[in-house]
Amino acid sequence: QVQLVESGGGLVQAGGSLTLSCAASGRTVSTLTMAWFRQAPGKERELVGTVKWNGVTTYYPDSVKGRFTISRDNAKNTVLLQMNSLKPEDTAVYYCAAKESRALVVGLSDGWYDFWGQGTLVTVSS
């Protein structure tokens, strides 16, 4: 079983930066493919980015590419989401997700992931 706990959400002005953290327990992150999703009020949950078990291969959708970066801290068993140039439309609850998988192909839908954190709210003011 994998437990995920997100932290780092808060209120930030447009153009600002914020770093979210996802602490994993129960497994080391080197055995997990992990992702960040977000869900804005009244909208479906959407993928923000993924990082494969190797800690190197990442994927970002166009909506955040060039602004968001996922990294991994193996010593802390944590995955980080660095968010820069934030926009009001980035306002959402951000969720960390994980799957015990070393598959070559990473799932891009929320149904592919088995473990989820409780979410952390990010609010970007204009």
Brief account:
This protein has 126 residues and is mainly β. 0% of the residues lie in helices and 48% in strands.
Overview of the structural elements:
This protein has 126 residues and is mainly β. The protein has strands at residues 3-7, 10-13, 18-25, 33-39, 46-51, 58-59, 68-73, 78-83, 92-99, 115-116, 120-125. Strands 2, 4, 5, 6, 9, 10 and 11 form a seven-stranded mixed beta sheet that branches. The protein has a four-stranded antiparallel beta sheet with strand order 1-3-8-7, with no helix packed on it. It starts with a strand and ends with a strand. The mean pLDDT is 95.
- The succession of helices and strands, N to C, reads EEEEEEEEEEE
Regions with pLDDT < 50 over 5+ consecutive residues?
Answer: none
Q: Total number of β-strand segments? A: 11
Helix-and-strand structural type: mainly beta
Mean pLDDT: 95
Calculate the terminal CA-CA distance, rounded to whole Å: 40 Å
What fraction of the residues are assigned to beta strands by DSSP? over 45%
Shape: globular
Helical proportion? under 10%
By DSSP (H or I, 4+ residues per run), the number of helices equals: 0
Query: Tell me about the biggest sheet?
Result: 7 strands, mixed
| Oligomeric nature of the chains | single chain
Radius of gyration: 13 Å
